[in-house]
């Protein structure tokens, strides 16, 4: 097996930036749904796809072993591709299906060739790159790096929306969580990454991202205390549980106060109105949907009715569950739910066999994914959330590849070694 080369590291970094939704150009100064990625993104996506095809051929023996494990996700991919037959925009559905297939190919490569731990280290590096580029853009090109409209003071950086920047910090923190759990201790660089992430989330004014960030940190603390297993750690777990239950009780008894503290109202900043408009325009609950990535098109009557009803051009339903139904139908939502249950079972099984880091990380990822899609839209799109789901599923279902550098106690002597550049003799 040849060592992982520098160009493969570059491909991995750029591909991760693409999954995060980074705009490799400048954002439009016009507040409109037409604010999309620059023309540079298309050739970059094509180059990444070509690289993944070559890597798939080069490491075909290793990666082929992981494909049967991905059967639930392959079924979702097959349904997404089949919607091209009845889609409102067959070309768009087919192109996005190809993007979903390339996402799964990247996840297989990340697990079988790089190793999940090594990839998560690279992801943490990418988080620093995205944050640094966004802050630099806010200083150098403020007309492009700040959000528009109601949140004109929020930084969106190299992303199309401020919430995308906050979300990038959330998934980066999730990647850091896996690294910390495998190491079973926190370093100064880890703390610096957390501080950076929370500062960027605050500058982006992303309430959802802040809540999810706190959830990830809390889950990581729980896991580390569990791993330690001392009487002091058990006491801390009990205390933390009491605090969480207290917050939950306040949320149930006085949700208005909680929403106010988070800077939201009872309509979740107009999301309830969007949900009602989408349900009405889509005609109920379609079984097969209107086509993968083919619902939110400016020239369709349904979207026009939704925009007229809510008074602005929403780019999505702000609910991953609603967007799944209108795109791939109740059948698609059922497939995703079955895959989530199977992922939960695989995570619990991994924890039962001593792989606490993989299992706990996967369960946390699922919880974040479920909550994020309550008032934001990620499902069923080929983005970083879906990628982390596939990667976590593989981490729980497949044993580590034998050629990947094992991460034992001696690896702490070289913490900057991101990838298994050479095989250990």
In short:
With 425 residues, the protein is an all-alpha fold. It contains 17 helices and no strands.
Sheet with the most strands, sense and barrel status: none
SSE order in H/E notation?
A: HHHHHHHHHHHHHHHHH
Please report the total strand number as a whole number: 0
Low-confidence regions? 402-425
Q: What's the total helix number?
A: 17
Report on the structure:
The protein has 425 residues and is mainly α. Helix content is 67%, strand content 0%. The chain has helices at 6-20, 41-58, 60-64, 71-82, 90-114, 116-140, 142-145, 162-183, 188-204, 207-228, 231-253, 255-261, 271-281, 301-310, 320-352, 356-375, 384-397. Helix 5 crosses helix 6 (116-140). The chain starts with 5 loop residues before the first helix and ends in a 28-residue tail after the last helix. The relative contact order is 0.13. Residues 402-425 have low confidence and may be disordered.
How are the SSEs ordered, and which strands pair?
Elements: H1 6-20, H2 41-58, H3 60-64, H4 71-82, H5 90-114, H6 116-140, H7 142-145, H8 162-183, H9 188-204, H10 207-228, H11 231-253, H12 255-261, H13 271-281, H14 301-310, H15 320-352, H16 356-375, H17 384-397
Helix pairs in contact: 1-2, 1-6, 2-5, 4-5, 4-15, 5-6, 5-17, 6-8, 6-9, 8-9, 8-10, 8-16, 9-10, 10-11, 10-16, 11-12, 13-14, 15-16, 15-17, 16-17
């Amino acid at each position: 097996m040849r060592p992982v080369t520098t160009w493969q590291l570059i491909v991995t970094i750029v591909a991760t930036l693409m999954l995060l939704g980074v705009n490799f150009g400048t954002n439009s100064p016009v507040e409109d749904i037409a604010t999309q990625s620059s023309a540079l993104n298309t050739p970059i996506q094509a180059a990444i796809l070509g690289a993944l095809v070559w890597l798939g051929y080069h490491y075909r023996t290793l990666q082929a072993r992981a494909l049967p494990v991905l059967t639930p996700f392959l079924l979702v991919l097959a349904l997404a591709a089949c919607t091209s037959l009845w889609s409102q925009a067959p070309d768009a559905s087919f192109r996005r299906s190809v993007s979903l297939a390339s996402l799964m190919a990247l996840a297989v490569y990340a697990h079988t060739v790089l190793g999940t731990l090594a990839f998560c280290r690279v992801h943490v590096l990418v988080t620093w790159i995205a944050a640094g580029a966004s802050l630099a853009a806010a200083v150098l090109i403020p007309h492009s790096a700040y959000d528009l409209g109601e949140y004109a003071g929020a930084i969106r950086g190299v992303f199309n929306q401020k919430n995308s920047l906050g979300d990038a910090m959330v998934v980066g923190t999730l990647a850091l969580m896996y690294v910390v759990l495998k190491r079973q201790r926190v370093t100064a660089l880890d703390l610096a990454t957390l501080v950076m992430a929370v500062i960027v989330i605050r500058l982006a004014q992303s309430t959802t991202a802040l809540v999810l960030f706190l959830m990830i940190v809390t889950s990581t603390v729980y896991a580390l205390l569990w791993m330690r297993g001392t009487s002091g750690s058990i006491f801390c777990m009990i205390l933390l549980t009491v605090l969480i239950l207290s917050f939950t009780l306040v949320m149930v008894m006085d949700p208005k106060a909680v929403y106010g503290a988070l800077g939201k109202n009872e309509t979740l900043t107009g999301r309830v109105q969007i949900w009602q408009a989408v349900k009405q325009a889509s005609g109920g609950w379609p079984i097969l949907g209107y086509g993968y990535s083919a619902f939110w098109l400016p020239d369709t009557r349904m979207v026009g009715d939704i925009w007229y009803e809510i008074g602005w051009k929403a780019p999505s339903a702000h609910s991953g569950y609603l967007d799944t139904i209108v795109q791939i139908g109740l059948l698609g939502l059922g497939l995703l739910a079955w895959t989530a249950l199977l992922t939960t079972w695989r995570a619990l099984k991994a924890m039962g066999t001593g792989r606490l880091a993989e299992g706990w990380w996967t369960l946390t990822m699922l919880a974040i994914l479920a909550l994020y899609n309550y008032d934001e839209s990620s499902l069923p799109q080929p983005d970083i959330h879906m990628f982390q789901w596939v990667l976590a599923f593989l981490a729980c279902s497949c044993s580590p590849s034998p050629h990947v550098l094992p991460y034992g106690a001696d690896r702490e002597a070289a913490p900057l070694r991101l990838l298994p550049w050479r095989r250990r003799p």
